[in-house]
Design a protein that fits this description.
Length: 421
């Protein structure tokens, strides 16, 4: 049986999330049977060194023994109660301890939910309707946020979605990443009307675009100038570029932070948190309604706690960076040796090689990439046993489970793949 062909008969496009289909690179996706450490194994018996890491969560590698054993232990005690547990307190304390601006947190089951609820909260707190987001940033698939979005929407060249009523979309104003003037002019034109400015502090859904020096601090100032809630969407960057996320890394404090991916250790979790004064507006203490049958689910919290404990070990991030440097320095060297001047953005364990020359510092820069070339490169890498995201507009992730041998093998495959283009 061809699993993917058969899946397409029962699941739209054969996938439960569009980015999994090889929409922009062509071909049929690898059907994963299992994964362990740095590797994924396909149904047809192939092995790949993986840099997708389930799109970010698997920072300690796949099927991490410490996490799996906690999930098993939790499963034996019951998979869902719909009532408060001690584990929820434990993970909430850990998150508040690790993420500098977060004083209170609520758990949900996905990043989308976290953003959707956080926006409602910001709107209720400010008693305003409008929000500002950046073109090319992705914040999940809720109605207000599917406007000029990144991730799969860019991959499929469809930055907004039908089915979102104009009445919702009109409250979403679009600014340009790394362009503070675009933010200031939206604020000036909509004085006293903007509830929230949301940003991926490091943009990871249009490839990888780093904030320019001072950009995040300027956003903080711009928000303060008009009573706007600053929301950092750290669903990718949280616990990834530093234990405290981008806010710790760049030392700029948002009012609300959304999280996901890594805090679930591979199980479905999202969270939003922030200043006590704002979070106290959530039901049942305050009037802002938000709920979830499986929120704070015991398996997910067990995985999350095990994960956050690992990340709290001394030198975790230092060691992860050292590993990342082995590969990422080699990739830079490969480009140099081959005389290629492609834009190449990196931060800690995240990186993205853009198939365009010059710097990529904006959405427009990222859009100059030759996605056909990326598609060829992707397949060259895959044929050499390296699994990258099937889209130019995603970052790659090194995990602590990648061995030096993995990284060296990947660097060699990278050289050969670029050469083959
Ligand atoms: N925010 C960001 C920055 C993301 O990258 C994503 C998912 N890639 C989301 C929100 C949505 O998270 P989820 O897919 O868990 O709904």
């Amino acid at each position: 049986m061809n699993i993917f062909e058969e899946s397409k008969k029962f699941i739209p496009g054969g996938v439960n999330s569009p980015v999994r289909a090889y929409g922009s690179v062509g071909g049929d996706p690898v059907i994963v049977k299992s994964a362990k450490g740095s590797k994924i194994y396909s149904e047809d018996g192939k092995e790949y060194i993986d840099y997708v890491g389930s799109w970010g969560p698997m920072i300690t590698g796949h099927a991490d023994d410490d996490i799996i054993s906690e999930v098993k232990r939790a499963a034996d005690m019951g998979t869902s109660f719909g009532a408060p547990t001690k584990a929820e307190l434990d993970i909430a304390k850990m998150i508040c301890d690790m993420v500098p601006s977060v004083e209170m947190v609520r758990l949900v089951s996905s990043g989308t939910e976290a953003l959707m609820s956080a926006i409602r909260l910001a709107r209720a707190y400010t008693k305003r309707d409008k929000i500002i987001k950046f073109e090319g940033c992705y914040h999940g698939h809720s109605d207000s946020l599917l406007v000029k979005s990144g991730s799969g929407l860019l991959t499929f060249n469809q930055p907004s979605s039908p089915g979102v009523p104009e009445d919702f979309a009109k409250h979403t104003l679009i600014a340009q990443f790394n362009d503070i003037e675009s933010v200031k002019s939206l604020i000036a034109d909509n004085k006293g009307q903007i509830a929230c400015l949301l940003v991926e502090p490091v943009a990871g859904n249009m490839g990888l675009v780093l904030p320019k020096e001072g950009f995040l601090a300027d956003l903080r100032k711009a928000c303060d100038s008009d009573g706007i809630v600053l929301l950092f969407d750290e669903v990718i960057t949280g616990f990834r570029i530093a234990k405290g996320g981008s806010q710790a890394y760049y030392d700029v404090m948002p009012d609300i932070t959304t999280m996901g991916k890594i805090i679930g250790g591979g199980l479905p979790v999202g969270a939003f948190g922030g200043k006590r004064e704002i979070m106290q507006m959530m039901s049942p203490v305050g009037p802002v309604y938000q709920a979830g049958t499986l929120s704070g689910n015991p398996l997910a919290t067990a995985a999350g706690i095990a994960m956050l404990k690992k990340l709290s070990q001394p030198d975790f991030y230092k060691n992860l960076k050292a590993k990342s440097d082995i590969l990422y320095d080699a990739m830079a060297e490969n480009c140099k040796k081959l005389g290629l001047n492609y834009a190449y953005n990196r931060v800690e364990s995240m990186a993205c090689l853009f198939f365009t020359e010059g710097k990529v510092e904006s959405f427009q820069d990222a859009m100059k990439s030759d996605t056909k070339k990326y598609a060829k490169f992707f397949h060259e890498m895959l044929n050499r046993g390296i699994n990258l995201a099937p889209s130019q507009f995603e970052a790659m992730f090194v995990s602590s489970a990648h061995s030096e041998e993995d990284l060296e093998k990947t660097a060699k495959a990278h050289y050969e793949s670029l050469k083959a283009l």
